[in-house]
Design a protein that fits this description.
Length: 60
C-alpha cells in the first residue's frame, strides 16, 4: 500500500519518494501518531494555547 507524500519544496502531493515536478525529496503528508500518554502532548497543548492568546498579526 502506498502512502501519500508531499514535496518539501513545491508542496505537490504524490506517491513517489521524489517529486515528479521539481525533483525534490518528499515526506509523508500524514501527521505523526498521537496518543494521550505522549511526552509531546504538553508541548502541543502549550503551543495551541499560546497561539490562541497572541493577537492576530498581519493579514487582512
Amino acid at each position: 500500500m502506498s502512502v501519500l507524500r508531499k514535496c518539501t519544496s513545491c508542496g505537490r502531493y504524490t506517491l513517489r519518494d521524489v517529486c515528479p515536478a521539481c525533483g525534490s525529496p518528499t515526506r509523508s503528508a500524514h501527521p505523526p501518531p498521537f496518543s494521550e500518554g505522549s511526552p509531546r502532548l504538553e508541548v502541543l497543548v502549550r503551543a495551541l494555547i499560546e497561539g490562541r492568546r497572541r493577537p492576530n498579526q498581519g493579514g487582512s
